[in-house]
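Folds abound. Consider this:
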Amino acid sequence: MVVEHARLEKSNLTKYVPPKGEFEAFRDEEHYKEKLKEWGLSSARHEFLFKERNYKRGVTIIGYESYGKSDEYNTLVIEFQDGNISCIHPAYLKEMQQSSFGKESLIQTEEKESDSTEAAVDTTPVKVEKQEKTPAVKAPKVPKPKKDKPVKIALPADKVHFTATVKQFALSYNPFNEANDEVVILENVQIVQEQPIDLDFAWCSHSKTLKKFELTAGDSLEFDGKVASKKLPKGKDVPEEYTLEVAVLYKVNNPSKLVKK
């Protein structure tokens, strides 16, 4: 009974942020691991710590909400042991897993004290003699040539059917796990519908599901998925074989029903 009472007290101290409505649940274990890798969290874990200044609680990730103009961002939905659910940003939950969470760095404290000491050394105002300034001659402004703005494409919000060709593989920097992730670059991308939409290039994560197809450059593909306006983040220290010379402005999320021709 003492353990149960302590758990309920922690429950009362927690400020819950419930989901706005229905949230997206994981399709299966593989989908769960794929999303956790995307968020920079350990895919081998099924329980994480939720920390406050004076207590911590165990939680599980049961789904996520998508937001942004093209649903390119996620908010996690976590469940506590007492059944309460709440929303949290992936990076904040990742930060909670660190042992230093909530503790101020000793180095930062010493720097603050040092700055305070230096600031208090001498506060006597110094009189500075004004010097006559020579008026600067301003160069005439040369108008910059106007750049043509790219035409904005109205992307469908629902899942659609695609045809595309594998151009190459590339590396994209993931700030959550602070490493490069391998991605698939697609070219001749077309959204197949009554009025087809050509996107030229797009990218998607090289997930375990896609790796089963053993894709190579030049493969023609058909698949379903959602498309978002999201530029490919550049990788860090990219080897020559992963060099990409084109701008990729669209991302395909969760490609499924893939057929390789």
Summary: The first strand starts at residue 48 and ends at 52. The two ends are 63 Å apart (CA to CA). DSSP finds five helices and nine strands in the chain.
